[in-house]
Specification:
Recoverin, domain 1; 7-stranded antiparallel β-sheet; 6-stranded mixed β-sheet; EC 3.1.4.11
């Protein structure tokens, strides 16, 4: 019997939070001061609520809260004077302030401050609130729970009289119904129905609210489905009818029947008992349309396997075997030129699950000589390096215990590099991985350690000195420090002696294990564009100033790849509304046109160098050289353009490289508006750190956030087996199935939307798929526009069929709803390897991947093993032989009724009629007419699968077929790879 999956999304909530505590509350911008607020958290952890006598109730949705931390004492005299008025001094505030940061994305944030009576109360609430807000499972609750959440919000938002205003209820349904119809529905339920009426909270139960939703926007789509199941003969479903529906529609036929048994009457009765409200029907084992609707809106019908939201993957593979959620220019809140830098971005990005952040380090110019982080010479604001390190320490392991990689873009002098190293050492303490693990020495042929072995460790990615040079300089530094000469600049800076200085110029490049690659030598930043005058320079000057020239193959990673100045100028106009340094438009264009980025330093302080271990950036000299050296802890970075170039010419080699060591991809310099490239094509090649601008919630970031929501949002995803094993070859541009991988067919039929908008607007739904180039289908499938109904539009489209998905493990489905101005209303990214078949409600997210609460799309998802034309009959027979035999026997019985002896029925080949695909009776030999191409492909795939065993992964859902183990067919589908992705320029 199939078992129900218990989706335990609810975290334990301490009683003191439910009962409430008195705080003084203030906001800094705009100024608000509310003393003696009683703050509570509801039993489900949905909201922080508070109400002051004589004022309306207020709520803060916990799913929008990004971080909870100890707040600093305010500096605003107005706020301090407000505290003095209630008898509190600055000393009284120390350790008592809770800072609550919330927002619909990572950039547009609001801060609310609560002041407790003492530090102990503040500490208890901080710990309690953190357990509630860092609950990614709660973002995946079912539509019924979302309705309950919305009802709770209305109950909390009482007016000054402590009652629920009818006007607030009408807003929920205003996008599809007139006020008159809503008032009538309220009246029918015995509730106050006047425009200015109020409802007592105890009278407005959830059952009444649910009944109200069914009256105002009845689910005619589910009613129609209900009638189709029972043949429109009764007003209920029998147990047998429910069992048939569950097995034929709600179960993926590719699933292993031992791990995922079929539904049986016992399981169907459990469902009826849980969701049917009519006791008489329940006793008879029947289900009404209301019970059926409640079932379809429950957690048992989630669109994804809910266990995928937990940590389900093996975490003991080498680091290079995982996709790692990675950020580019983490410090920026907006555009790359004239943008604003923020320490807060590091907190938000790490709390979102990202595991690799970037620090652009430059010399501070003040008297204190403090290293800073900024986008060098791009007129961006500065933040202190030490403040960023402190923020990283506080947030690195709140969401995930798995290792964080700090990608240093180091432009600092040795003096300030020494400060950087000391800050890392002192602030991170034991969190910093200063030395390689004993079992994973830095030798050729030694694999990288696993995420489990690096739990709660911070790794530094920075250029490193050659071991012998580093050792010599460290010994010299130690000797002088022991002699009490720590204040001697030459010693702190790690300078060589006179003999070394004389040889320094000749040996400069040798100080680094490897010179920087194109991506590394340009400081991973070709945000730099050179002016036209630089572009036409030549000879030695050209190489020194990183100008534009034809790059020989053997130098492709050694100089800056200049970006066309006009490209940057055009991009700069796209995002002038982002906060940052104010620059006149004409002067900005001139600055961008002449801007030249400065390469990262190769003069590394030995103290910082010694902190680098498993993420050592090196010059990329080619895939063959990397394979020959076989150094797993070496890695290279590639801007998106160079990465695409290597994919175009050396795709298989790139995949093999990523099996052994790590690569980092980052945006090209023309993206001064902080737009993102499409990450999918680099995931297809196994690139681990596909770094994106997290501050920009565009399609690329939505794909990233949707993908990394799996595996407990830990920031690490295990790559498919064939992208890890050295004995397997994989071409990311393949148009035929991969050895050992079963291609799939995916169909999505969109029926309706629910609560899409609070406005009377037109809406339509787009369904796209991203994966291998041959699997990627964009902008082809969209529903019709339904006008003037944002409440419950009915689309009733024909199925959108993705005929052949050759690599389901890497494919993701995107369902997005747009209004009649083509503005995004909501979207959802659903990785195909965790998608559930059947009639499902897809809860939508905003562009920043925050849950939208009520908006859903109701659709049917069909997932099958891909079968080429001509093999349908034999696969149908093998997939369900019982059904096949039943049909054949039924026909024989019908012939017998006509007086025909079954012995007179000859064995004949199966026909190709559309209406006769189920074959013949017992004992028949089936023959199917197929094309020569399909037959050849069938043999090819069958042989490859027989020669390759698919590894069974711990805890993973097995997507193997019940009866068609040796029948995995393929067809040829030609597409131009880069056109399929529509890679933006």
């Amino acid at each position: 019997m199939t078992k129900s999956y218990e989706f335990n999304w609810q975290k334990h909530l301490p009683e003191f939070m439910q009962e409430g505590t008195s705080f003084d509350r203030f906001d800094e911008d705009p100024y608000i001061f509310e003393p003696n607020c009683r703050m509570k958290v509801d039993e489900y952890g949905f909201f922080i609520t508070w109400k002051i006598e004589g004022k309306e109730g207020q709520v803060l949705e916990c799913s929008l809260i990004n971080s909870i931390r100890v707040g600093a004492i305010p500096k605003d005299p107005k706020i301090l004077s407000s505290f003095e008025a209630v008898g509190k001094t600055e000393a009284d505030l120390e350790g008592c302030i809770i800072c609550i940061c919330s927002g619909t994305d990572l950039v547009n944030l609001s801060f609310m401050f609560l002041v407790a009576e003492n530090p102990d109360i503040a500490r208890k609430w901080i710990e309690g609130l953190r357990s509630v807000i860092h609950n990614f499972k709660a973002n995946n609750v079912c539509p019924m729970t979302c309705l309950k959440k919305h009802w709770m919000r209305m109950c909390f938002l009482t007016n000054v009289n402590g009652k629920i205003p009818v006007r607030g209820i009408t807003r929920t349904f205003a996008s599809g119904k007139t006020e008159k119809g809503i008032f009538q529905a309220l009246k029918d339920l015995g509730l106050p129905s006047g425009k200015n009426d109020e409802i007592e909270p105890p009278d407005f139960t959830f059952d009444i609210f649910y009944a109200l939703t069914q009256k105002i926007c009845p689910r005619t789509d589910i009613e129609e489905l209900f009638k189709n199941i029972n043949g429109n003969k009764t007003d209920y479903l029998t147990v047998d009818q429910l069992v048939s529906f569950l097995n034929e529609n709600q179960r993926d036929p590719r699933l292993n029947e031992i791990l995922f048994p079929f539904y049986d009457p016992k399981r169907a009765m459990q469902i009826i008992e849980k969701y049917e409200r009519d006791e008489e029907l329940k006793k008879k084992g029947r289900m009404s349309s209301d019970g059926f609707c409640r079932y379809l809106m429950s957690d048992e019908n989630a669109p994804v396997f809910l266990d995928r939201l937990e940590l389900y993957q093996e975490m003991d593979q080498p680091l290079a075997h995982y996709f790692i959620s990675s950020s580019h220019n983490t410090y920026l809140t907006g555009r790359q030129f004239g943008g604003k830098s923020s320490v807060e971005m590091y907190r938000q990005v790490l709390l979102s699950g990202c595991r690799c952040v970037e620090l652009d380090c430059w010399d501070g110019k003040g008297e204190d000589q403090e290293p800073i982080i900024t986008h060098g010479k791009a007129m961006c604001t500065d933040i202190l390096f030490k403040d960023v390190i402190q923020a990283i320490k506080e947030t690195a392991f709140v969401t995930s215990d798995y290792p964080v990689i700090l990608s240093f873009e180091n432009h600092c002098s040795k003096l300030q590099q020494y400060k950087m190293a000391k800050y890392c050492e002192e602030i991170f303490g034991d969190l910093l991985l200063r030395q390689p693990l004993e079992s994973y020495s830095l030798e050729p042929g030694r694999p990288l350690p696993s995420p489990n072995e690096l739990k709660k460790k911070i790794l530094i990615k920075n250029k490193r000195l050659k071991p012998e040079v580093e050792q010599r300089q460290l010994e010299s530094l130690k000797k002088h420090m022991e002699a009490g000469e720590t204040n001697t600049p030459a010693i702190i800076m790690g300078e060589e002696d006179d003999t070394e200085n004389a040889e320094k110029e000749a040996e400069e490049k040798d100080l680094i294990s490897e010179a920087p690659s194109l991506s590394e030598a340009t400081s991973e930043k070709e945000t730099s564009s050179v002016s036209q005058s630089n572009a036409v320079s030549s000879g030695k000057d050209e190489e020194q100033n990183n100008g534009v020239r034809k790059i020989p193959d053997d130098e492709v990673t050694e100089i800056s790849e200049a970006t066309d100045a006009t490209d940057i100028s055009e991009a700069s106009d796209q995002d002038n509304n982002k906060k940052g340094v104010d620059v006149a438009e004409d002067s900005e264009e001139a600055l961008i046109a002449s801007y030249q980025y400065e390469s990262a330093t190769t003069n590394i302080h030995p103290y910082l160098s010694a902190m680098v271990n498993y993420a050592q950036p090196v010059k990329f000299q080619g895939f063959d050289v990397a394979e020959e050296r076989n150094i797993y802890h070496n890695m290279s970075s590639f801007n998106e353009s160079v990465g695409l170039g290597y994919l175009k010419t050396n795709a298989i080699e790139f995949v093999n490289y990523n099996k052994r060591q790590m690569s980092r991809i980052y945006p090209k310099g023309g993206r001064v508006d902080s737009s993102n490239y499409m990450p999918q094509i680099f995931w297809n090649a196994g690139c681990q750190m596909v770094s994106l601008n997290f501050q920009t919630p565009d399609l690329a970031m939505q794909l990233n956030q949707g993908k990394f929501e799996y595996n407990g949002s830990c920031g690490y995803l295990l790559k498919p087996d064939f992208m890890r094993r050295s004995d397997r070859t994989f071409d990311p541009f393949s148009e035929t199935p991969v050895d050992g991988v079963i291609a799939a067919t995916c169909s999505v039929q969109v029926f309706s939307g629910q609560f899409l908008s609070d406005k009377k607007i037109g809406t339509y739904v787009e369904v796209d798929m991203y994966g291998l180039p041959t699997d990627t289908i964009r902008k082809e499938f969209r529903t019709r526009m339904v006008m003037n109904n944002g409440l419950n539009p009915a689309y009733n489209e024909e199925p959108f069929v993705f005929r052949k998905v050759i690599l389901p493990d890497l494919a993701v489905l995107r369902i997005a709803v747009y209004d009649d101005n083509n503005k995004l209303i909501g979207q959802r990214i659903l990785p195909l390897d965790g998608l559930q078949a059947g009639y499902r409600h897809i809860s939508l997210r905003n562009e920043g991947n925050k849950p939208l609460s009520l908006p859903t799309v109701f659709c049917q998802i069909i997932l099958k093993t891909y079968v080429p034309d001509g093999f349908g009959a034999i696969v149908d027979a093998l997939s369900d032989p019982k059904k096949f035999l039943t049909i054949a026997e039924k026909r024989a019985d019908q012939m017998k009724a006509l007086g025909i002896d079954t012995n007179d029925i000859a064995d004949v080949p199966s026909g190709s009629s559309k209406n006769d695909k189920k074959g013949k009776g017992k004992g028949d030999t089936m023959k199917v007419s197929v094309t020569q191409q399909a037959s050849s492909e069938m043999a090819q795939t069958s042989n490859s699968i027989n020669n390759n065993t698919t590894e069974t992964k711990r805890g993973e859902n097995q997507l193997c077929s019940r009866h068609v183990t040796h029948i995995h067919a393929v067809c040829s589908l030609s597409q131009t790879a880069f056109v399929a992705f529509q890679i933006p320029h």
